[in-house]
């Protein structure tokens, strides 16, 4: 049997905060996902809080399991889904509907416009000023509409 120091239980993970590489608390671990055939854990689900979708994080995103915290090795791109997208003057343009990433960096976001038409457009990362509580675009931003 493996030494007790190498073994953790679900009690050591469930209910713990998950922290990304930016030091931001993403939420609380609420589920473990286990492959039935291989009998190995494949990921966790994080409860991001009221009115935010649950976030699945695969094992490749987990750096280690601390005493009180699950530390992630990178920021999951899905963390940004649902955030408000604002122009440089603070006007609401829509919400993040999807994220395209490459080598663990955001390449572009897909924005769903508010309103009846639900048009969508792409925003390359070079046009993003900052991502925090919302996504703020640079003055140089030009929309690239996605055809339906």
Structure explained in plain terms:
The chain has 148 residues and is mainly beta. It has 2 domains: 13-75, PRC-barrel domain (SH3 type barrels), CATH 2.30.30; 78-145, PRC-barrel domain (SH3 type barrels). It contains no helices and 13 strands. The protein has strands at residues 17-19, 25-35, 40-47, 55-58, 62-65, 69-72, 84-86, 92-102, 105-113, 120-124, 128-131, 135-137, 144-145. The radius of gyration is 18 Å and the shape is elongated. The model has no long low-confidence stretch (mean pLDDT 85).
H-E string: EEEEEEEEEEEEE
**What's the count of strands?**
13
Instruction: Tell me the strand percentage band.
Output: over 45%
The CATH architecture assignment of the largest domain turns out to be Roll
How would you state the average pLDDT, rounded?
85
Query: What gyration radius follows from the Cα positions, in whole Å?
Result: 18 Å
- Name of the top-level CATH class of the largest domain: Mainly Beta
Structural class: mainly beta
Describe the global form. elongated
CATH topology of the largest domain: SH3 type barrels
Whole-number tally of structural domains: 2
Give the CATH superfamily of the largest domain: PRC-barrel domain
Can you list the strand order of the major beta sheet? Answer: 11-12-7-8-9-10-13
Helix content: under 10%
Tally of contiguous helical segments = 0
